[in-house]
Amino acid sequence: MNKKMKSYKSFTALVIVWTMLGAGHVSAQNDSIHVKAYAAMDDKGVQVPYEYNRRPVGDHDVLADILYCGICHSDVHEAFNDWDYTVYPNVSGHEMVGRVAQVGKDVTRFKVGDYIGIGAVQASCMKCPQCKADNEQYCTHEGGTGFGDVTSTCGFSDKMVVDEHFGITIPKDAPVEKLGPVMCAGITVYSPLKAANIKSGDKVAVAGFGGPGHLAVRYSLAFGAEVTVFDRTEEKRALASELGAAGYVNVNNPEEMEGLQGKFDYILTTIPTRYDPVQYMNMLKLGGELIIVGLPATSEAPDININAIPFGTRISKSLMGGIAETQEAMDFSIKHGIYPMVEVIPVQRMNEAFQNVKEGKVHFRYVVDMQTLNQ
Ligand code: NDP
Ligand code: ZN
Fold first, then answer.
1. Which of 102, 195, 232, 246 is 20 to 30 A (C-alpha) from 221?
2. 45-61: per-residue pLDDT in tens?
3. Cα 122 to averaged position of ligand 1 atoms, centre (Å)
């Protein structure tokens, strides 16, 4: 998420040139791609219609018509400049499913008409040790991990140009309106849970039962864990049980937070607000691990008193996942029928949806139907 920001390039207006080269395979073009989108223009975060140009379709690029894009809490953080780096106009959105409309001449993994998933990792240097180890999300080189040719992820648009390496394949019969969130909410929790090498019967807690949180519950159960959910509303208790969680702790009831010392092998926290990580670390067994994926606003970032951390516990922090592992998460989700619970909305309801995400009134993911941009 700590992206190097570039200024928007100005491009000439679009003329999409459908060449004679068969099923959409085209040589590199000079024409930039004109895109309709919704953008925040300042830190008030209000989403308004906005048009801009993306880079032309290169030999290794895919042009996709974006069908659906999930709303992640990170989009809300970004729109409101919660992390102090947003460049405006800000077109966020990084949980995309699109349909391939055109491919560059060297593209091998996609053809016109295929579905494609696109997440936040849309470019990387491909040469550094992180990229070579399939951890493109940790590429730190100049021109490395980033958003391709613009300053943000741009999922709330009608079109996308991306190097095919960063595309996730999706089978034709998949429920595509539900799959966008796998590209962020899903992989963000799948990756550290997979790395944890969970054994049958391990006790896993998931703190923050939102987009990534509810998928973390499903993946942990699929890996054989017994799962406890921590969140702050009573209404999510039944939902947690419906998904198969063995326990639910309402963190606003102090008595429910008692008696949990040394109980868990792993606690994965997606909490996007201020909280006390050490309180959770005290609930870990010896050798247990607190896995942090939630990224609160800078002004709400928790402080950690290292002297209070229990000896013999571990703490880690994880960012999304590499492209190969995102593909693995997609394949795993489809194989096991692990889909996010989504509400599909038209783009005209984005402001209401952003506000609801801010206020925690979403069960569990809004997905924007990007085709409504053209209505
Ligand atoms: P959501 O708002 O969907 O989910 C967060 C959940 O946490 C909500 O259920 C919320 O409850 C709950 N919550 C909030 N405060 C507390 C608290 N103090 N204690 C317990 N539960 C709490 O957000 P997302 O799931 O989309 O994102 C979560 C965080 O993860 C964000 O900060 C986001 O930026 C970050 N993120 C990080 C990624 C990474 O790669 N590391 C990738 C994707 C997201 P309520 O509904 O009541 O508000
Ligand atoms: Zn996200």
1. 232
2. 999 999 999 999 999 99
3. 23
* pLDDT in the model for residue 5: 34
Residue 35 Cα to ligand 2 middle (Å): 22
Calculate how far, in angstroms, residue 294's C-alpha sits from the geometric centre of ligand 1. 6
Please report which confidence band the pLDDT of residue 375 belongs to, taking 50, 70 and 90 as the band edges: confident
Average pLDDT over residues 285-290: 98
- Dihedrals φ, ψ of 62, to 5°? -115, 135
Give the whole-angstrom CA distance, residue 269 versus residue 286.
18
* Angle value at C-alpha 252, between 247 and 257, nearest 5 degrees: 50
| Whole-prediction pTM | 0.92
Nearest to 159 by CA among 31, 65, 69: 65
Ligand 1 contact via 189 beta carbon (within 6 Å) = no
For ligand 1, is residue 270 a contact (CB within 6 Å)?
yes
Residue 110: name the closest of 96, 99, 121, 95 by CA: 99
Nearest CA, atom 17, ligand 1: 271
Whether ligand 1 lies within 6 angstroms of the CB of 357 is answered as yes
Residue pair 34/44 in contact (Cβ under 8 Å)? The answer is no
Task: State the CB neighbour count (10 A cutoff) for residue 249.
Answer: 20
Give the number of the ligand closest to the Cα of residue 280.
1
Q: Is 45 exposed, middle or buried (0-12, 13-18, 19+ CB in 10 A)?
A: buried
Whole-angstrom distance, CA of residue 48 vs CA of residue 91: 10
Tell me the two tokens of residue 289: 């691990």
Q: What is the rounded CA–CA span in Å between residue 184 and residue 190?
A: 10
CB of 209 closer than 6 angstroms to any ligand 1 atom: yes
- Per the document, the length of the chain is 375
Within 10 Å of residue 286's Cβ, how many Cβ atoms?
9
| Closest-CA residue to 116 (of 166, 78, 76) | 166
Q: Is the CB of 183 under 6 A from ligand 1?
A: no
- Is 184 touching ligand 1 by the criterion CB < 6 Å? yes
